């Protein structure tokens, strides 16, 4: 797979039962800085059968609990690890449900979550 991000939260690749591997963006948000795109903004990642690719927006990471603690990338990584043994459609629902449980109040940003299984 060729991966390129533009200031997005890191994508993840996970094997059921494994630790999610982060794929970090190598470029800044497009249109903000004149040199936002690095010459090496895309890179190749080897995928194996059974790998799951997790893509999401910051509406998933930037949610706060009743104590003001943000879920963040580490929290999403934990949710991905905990749900990766589920069938793909159940994994997606479980992640979204757990984000909603974490969040205090209604969503304040758009929420997108895409899961792909190789």
Could you describe the 3D structure shown?
This protein is of the alpha+beta class and 118 residues long. It has helices at residues 58-61, 72-83, 88-102; strands at residues 2-4, 11-14, 21-23, 42-44, 52-56, 113-117. Strands 3-2-5-6 form a four-stranded antiparallel beta sheet. A two-stranded antiparallel ribbon has the order 1-4. It is globular.
Shape: globular
With helices defined by DSSP (H or I, 4 residues minimum), what is the helix count? 3
What summary fits the major beta sheet? 4 strands, antiparallel
Structural class: alpha+beta
Strand content: 15-25%
Return the domain count. 1
The Rg value, from CA coordinates, equals 15 Å
Query: How are the strands ordered across the major sheet?
Result: 3-2-5-6
CATH superfamily: PPM-type phosphatase domain
CATH class categorisation: Alpha Beta
Distance between the termini: 11 Å
Identify the CATH architecture.
4-Layer Sandwich
Quick gist of this model?
The protein is α+β, with helices and mostly antiparallel strands and 118 residues long. 26% of the residues lie in helices and 19% in strands. It starts with a strand and ends with a strand.
């Amino acid at each position: 797979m060729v991966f390129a991000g533009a200031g997005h939260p890191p994508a993840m690749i996970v094997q059921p039962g494994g630790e999610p591997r982060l794929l970090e963006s190598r470029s800044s948000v497009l249109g903000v800085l004149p040199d936002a795109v690095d010459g090496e903004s895309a890179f190749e990642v080897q995928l194996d059968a059974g790998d799951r690719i997790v893509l999401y927006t910051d509406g998933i990471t930037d949610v706060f609990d009743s104590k003001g603690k943000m879920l963040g990338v580490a929290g999403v990584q934990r949710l991905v690890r905990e749900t990766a043994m589920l069938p793909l459609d159940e994994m997606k629902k479980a992640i979204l449900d757990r984000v909603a449980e974490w969040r205090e109040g209604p969503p304040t940003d758009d929420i997108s979550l895409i899961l792909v299984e190789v």
